[in-house]
Design a protein that fits this description.
Elements lengths: L3 H12 L6 E2 H8 L4 H9 L11 E2 L7 H13 L23 H13 L12
Parallel strand pairs: 1-2
Helix pairs in contact: 1-3, 1-5, 2-3
């Protein structure tokens, strides 16, 4: 069974559109919970689930070599901006997802579920 944080991470990752990417740290910051390592663990534990894992990368746009090889066909088919030379990596900031107001409303709802006992009602500053 997944923790509430892992479920929120997975639900947020599904919102990331084709052709864009976020870093592990971006996911944690958007949810206002956890950190890059927790997001990485949640993604590593998602094997067998239908998640676009190749849209979540390190802050420098890279993935571990074995994952980058598997991610490249996805990046190409989705026209995700990648660096032309050197190891496969997503080209930030060009590829970074910029959530819309509607996306932020969904993200805030996910974040609020992580803080059910917040006396401020879960609103973020």
């Amino acid at each position: 069974m997944h923790s509430p944080l892992n479920l929120a991470i997975h639900e947020l990752v599904v919102l990331v559109p084709a052709g864009t990417a976020v870093s592990y740290g971006d996911v944690a910051e958007l949810l206002g919970a956890g950190g890059p390592r927790q997001v990485g663990r949640a993604m590593a534990g998602s094997e067998g689930e239908d998640l676009p894992w190749w849209r979540v990368v390190r802050a420098d746009g890279s993935l571990p070599a074995e994952l980058a090889v598997r991610a490249r066909p996805h990046w190409v088919s989705e026209s995700t901006p990648v660096r032309g030379a050197g190891p496969d990596r997503v080209r930030f900031p060009d590829a970074r997802w910029q959530p819309s107001a509607e996306d932020f409303a969904r993200i805030d709802a996910l974040a609020d579920r992580l803080r059910p006992n917040d006396p401020c009602g879960g609103d973020r500053p």
